[in-house]
Specification:
The protein has helices at about 10-20, 65-75, 105-115, 150-160, 170-180, 225-235, 255-260, 285-295, and strands at about 5, 25, 30-35, 40-45, 50-55, 80-85, 120-125, 140-145, 160-165, 185-190, 190-195, 200, 215-220, 245-250, 265-270, 280. The termini are close together. The protein has a 6-stranded parallel beta sheet, sandwiched between helices. It has a 6-stranded parallel beta sheet with strand order 10-9-13-14-15-16, sandwiched between helices. Strands 3-4 form a two-stranded antiparallel sheet. It contains 8 helices and 16 strands. Helix content is about 30%, strand content about 25%. It is α/β, with parallel strands linked by helices. Helix 1 packs parallel to helix 8, helix 4 packs across helix 5 (about 170-180) and helix 6 (about 225-235) packs parallel to helix 7 (about 255-260). Bound molecules: ribose-5-phosphate (R5P). Ribose-5-phosphate binds near residues 170, 218, 220 and 221.
């Protein structure tokens, strides 16, 4: 039987791309809350002996987690033979060590919980910093895809004379590849995070890059403090207003407006998290990867 794909939490564009590209069936699921806020769940399609894919981007994960697990367990209970989680954005990747005594390493615990319920995980650019591979914490098979080619194509099409700027050491992994793809120069800055919303960034001399359009590139924009700091420095150094590109548009609170007000010319994101700034569509990236390698 052909695999069946379900969209959870309004991830219909990714689910439809998978359905169309792979010739899968689109499944129907109802999730609602009882008056006491417990979750009601009903899978309205036949999943018996089938490969089942749940598409669920995991921004704001706490409000989604239990429904996600219940969806997987309902499918298993109804006879699904393999259950894959397609999470364009994978949450809980940043607390990857005990920075202070007594802290929980939540990336590890979250990975264990998901691994207990899903047979396979597909995601895009998870925040791998001190860990080099998802396999270090995800026990089941996983596939990590990268947005760099789509981002490179966007910059190539829309930005004249770009210089790609990464705000910290870990951004070098994607910044250097994008710069190489479009044969643009790049700079990696030094960042010190002093709190959830307190970030310091050091920016080197930029005289030789005055004619360039700065393109700031980061994986996650959450509070946007990282980008705001860089934008302010660039302004002080007389550079053009930068274009800010984030893969995952988390934008906590007023982060989006604050970044525009700080002096970003444009804010562009990929659509792993639905947001008005989404301009780079990654649904085909996931759909093609599944078509080329994962369907069984
Ligand atoms: C962390 O190291 C990430 O790569 C991003 O730089 C970070 O998540 C951005 O967070 P914020 O927008 O809160 O500064």
């Amino acid at each position: 039987m052909i695999p069946i794909v379900f969209s959870l939490f309004n991830n219909l564009n990714f689910a439809e791309a998978i359905k169309d590209t792979c010739n899968y069936e689109m499944g129907e699921i109802s999730i609602r809350f009882f008056p006491d806020e417990e979750i009601y769940i009903k899978i309205n399609s036949n999943v018996k002996n089938r490969e089942v894919l749940f598409v669920a981007s995991l921004d704001r994960p706490n409000s989604k987690f239990l429904s996600l697990i219940f969806a997987a367990e309902t499918a298993r209970d109804l006879g699904a033979k393999k259950i894959t989680l397609v999470a364009p954005y994978l949450a809980y990747m940043r607390q990857d060590k005990r920075f202070n005594p007594g802290e929980g390493i939540t990336s590890k615990y979250f990975a264990t919980l998901l691994s207990n319920h899903f047979d396979c995980l597909i995601t895009i650019d998870p925040h791998l910093h001190r860990r080099h591979s998802l396999t270090e914490i995800y026990k089941k098979s996983n596939l990590v895809l990268h947005a760099e080619e789509k981002i490179s194509a966007w910059i190539k099409q829309y930005v004249k004379q770009p210089i790609i700027i990464g705000p910290d050491k870990e951004s070098e992994q994607w910044v250097s590849k994008v710069a190489q793809n479009i044969q643009a120069p790049f700079l990696i800055l030094e960042k010190h995070r002093k709190g959830d919303s307190l970030v310091e960034v050091s920016v080197p001399k930029l005289e030789q890059h005055q004619g360039y359009t700065p393109v700031l590139l980061d994986d996650i924009i959450a509070t946007a403090k990282t980008m705001i700091e860089v934008v302010k420095h660039l302004k002080d150094k007389g550079m053009r207003k930068p274009i800010c590109i984030g893969i995952h548009a988390i934008f906590a609170g007023n982060a989006y407006t604050a970044l525009l007000e700080a002096g970003a010319d444009k804010i562009i994101t990929c659509n792993t998290v639905t947001h008005p700034s989404n301009a780079i569509d990654l649904s085909e990236l996931i759909a093609n990867a599944i078509k080329n390698g994962l369907s069984s």
